[in-house]
Amino acid sequence: MSKNTSHDQNFKNLILDYPHQALEFFAKDEAGDITTDVRITPIRQEQLKERLGDRFHELDVPLLAEWPDGRKEALLFVLEEETDPRRFSIHRLAHYTLHLSELFETQRVVPVVILRTADTRARPGKATKICRVCRYL
């Protein structure tokens, strides 16, 4: 029996293992001032609920960038990865972004959408993952 590999989880793990490089790749313009001394911390994926009966919100990879010398306000990156672009919802992303903005009391939130799609045209018979990055500011 073959073991299923979660490419989504592997993708998230790469971002978490190499946060500086991931932000430089996926959000180059916004992450330009992030040097190796900037502390990047993954924040809780499952966001807090206001009421017990509310639906929970689970983010893919939210990252908090903090400058140790305090020269800049902390910056939140919301990296949302979607394998099926039809499942992506700009409304859900806007809700997550606004919720994080309130929770961390900042207006410095950068949402980044990573759309990964299978493209069989590249190599007939083999699906190749194509990665497109969309930034909504």
Describe this structure in words.
The chain is an alpha+beta fold and 137 residues long. 24% of the residues lie in helices and 34% in strands. The protein is built from three helices and seven strands, in the order H-H-E-E-E-E-E-H-E-E. The chain has helices at 7-17, 19-26, 90-103, and strands spanning 39-42, 46-47, 57-58, 61-66, 75-82, 109-123, 126-135. The strands form two sheets. Strands 1-4-5-6-7 form a five-stranded mixed β-sheet, with helices on both faces. Strands 2-3 form a two-stranded antiparallel ribbon. Helix 3 (90-103) links the parallel strand 5 (75-82) and strand 6 (109-123). Helix 1 packs across helix 2 (19-26). Residues 125-130 have low confidence and may be disordered.
What is the element layout, followed by pairings?
Blueprint (H helix, E strand, L loop, with lengths): L6 H11 L1 H8 L12 E4 L3 E2 L9 E2 L2 E6 L8 E8 L7 H14 L5 E15 L2 E10 L2
Parallel strand pairs: 5-6
Antiparallel strand pairs: 1-4, 2-3, 4-5, 6-7
